[in-house]
Inverse folding.
């Protein structure tokens, strides 16, 4: 399977499938494709896993595209940033931000990752993250510019809300409260920040969907009666 990522800060990825090869995505995730590809939409992994994916930012149904001959299929990102490919080996797992999954080969398992209650409610990524496991190739949508950091055992990094894009599953994810009354009221960072503890790699992003919404919403016209 070959692929090409293009588009600069508004990226997309074109995957070239040989006959018999497949790739899956959430329902409605495909941008365009050449002829010779069949589509099957179902509850991949059963109802329980499908509901978990729904809470982690993906659709209830997943669409699997299978090539009958050599063909191309393209998936586009929804926000400015990067599309990153990751090859997952057996026993290797990643935890990604809500909505990061773009597409993957059938051997990759996409499931919900339940963080601790405090981390989930206040850590900036929602109660449910996305866990990627199995074996194969997965493409993830990461927002803005990306910084990769290799944390050593016991090394910590404190991250602002929503800027955690991805981390290896052995990295510890938790939340800590901002100290100081004035910091809480006027610091603009919310009550909690995310703490990541090594060992393992983390990927941090400079752009978040919530920040875009916060800046755009005041300029959206509202109807008046």
């Amino acid at each position: 399977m070959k692929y090409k990522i293009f588009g600069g800060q508004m990226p997309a990825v074109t995957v070239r499938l040989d006959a018999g090869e497949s790739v899956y995505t959430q329902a409605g995730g495909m941008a365009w494709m050449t002829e010779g590809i069949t589509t099957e939409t179902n509850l991949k992994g059963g109802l329980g896993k499908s509901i978990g994916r729904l809470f982690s930012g993906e659709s209830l149904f997943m669409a699997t595209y299978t090539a009958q001959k050599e063909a191309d299929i393209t998936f586009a990102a929804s926000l400015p940033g990067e599309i990153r490919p990751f090859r997952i080996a057996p026993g290797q797992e990643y935890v990604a931000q809500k909505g990061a999954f773009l597409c993957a080969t059938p051997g990759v398992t996409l499931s919900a990752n339940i963080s601790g209650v405090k981390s989930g409610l206040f850590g900036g990524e929602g109660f449910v993250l996305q866990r990627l496991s199995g074996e194969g190739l997965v493409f993830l949508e990461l927002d803005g510019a990306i910084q990769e950091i290799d944390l050593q055992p016991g090394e910590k990094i404190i991250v602002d809300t929503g800027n955690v894009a991805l981390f290896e599953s052995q990295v510890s994810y938790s939340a800590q409260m901002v100290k100081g009354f004035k910091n809480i009221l006027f610091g603009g960072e919310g009550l909690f920040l995310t703490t990541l503890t090594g060992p393992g790699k983390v990927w941090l992003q400079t752009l978040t969907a919530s920040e875009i919404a916060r800046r755009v919403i005041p300029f959206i016209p509202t109807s008046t009666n």
Observations:
- Confidence is low (pLDDT under 50) at residues 52-57, 119-126, 180-190.
- The longest strand covers residues 81-88.
